[in-house]
Design goal:
Layout lengths: L4 E7 L2 H15 L3 E7 L5 H7 L12 E4 L15 H28 L8 E4 L17 H10 L1
Parallel strand pairs: 1-2, 3-4
Helix pairs in contact: 2-3, 3-4
Length: 149
């Protein structure tokens, strides 16, 4: 008997996902199906509706890995560009919250309301060990850690 496992990969760069999907298929063989999906985590409407748009076998998420993140700009306060701050927080914090809120309800409803599934939030080491010139990145990983607790 061969067990079939469905995996969904989503990110902003679809070409990278297709390459990863191909590598998974080569290593795992026919027992694993992978569906690469382009998703911008900063767009709440896109995040809210992406699960229902997937083929049925990919709609139940067992593990969510929130690892979207970026460091933008190199300016120090008080010269940090407002657009750089907005992009970083929208991706690193709001994106994580958008994904968690989209996936968590279905995880909590499984097993007769007992819940099932895991959420892994990946943050930057810069939250604990800041480095110049990325002064803006300091508080973002702490926000991720706070949501994880």
């Amino acid at each position: 008997m061969v067990a079939t496992m469905a995996q969904r990969l989503q990110a902003h760069r679809i070409d990278t996902l297709k390459q990863v999907a191909s590598e998974i298929n080569q290593e795992a063989g026919d027992g694993v199906r992978v569906l690469p999906v382009k998703l911008g985590v900063t767009n709440p409407d896109e995040v809210r509706t992406f699960v229902e748009k997937l083929p049925t076998e990919f709609q139940e998420v067992d593990v969510l890995v929130n690892d979207a993140g970026l460091a933008k700009g190199v300016a120090k306060a008080p010269e940090i560009a407002e657009d750089d701050m907005k992009v970083m927080f929208a991706t690193n914090v709001t994106g994580l919250i958008n994904m968690t809120q989209a996936i968590l309800p279905s995880m909590l409803n499984r097993n007769n309301g007992e819940g099932s599934g895991d959420i892994i939030n990946v943050g930057s080491i810069a939250g604990r060990e800041p480095y110049v010139p990325l002064t803006i990145n300091i508080d973002i990983p702490d926000s991720e850690k706070s949501l994880s607790n």
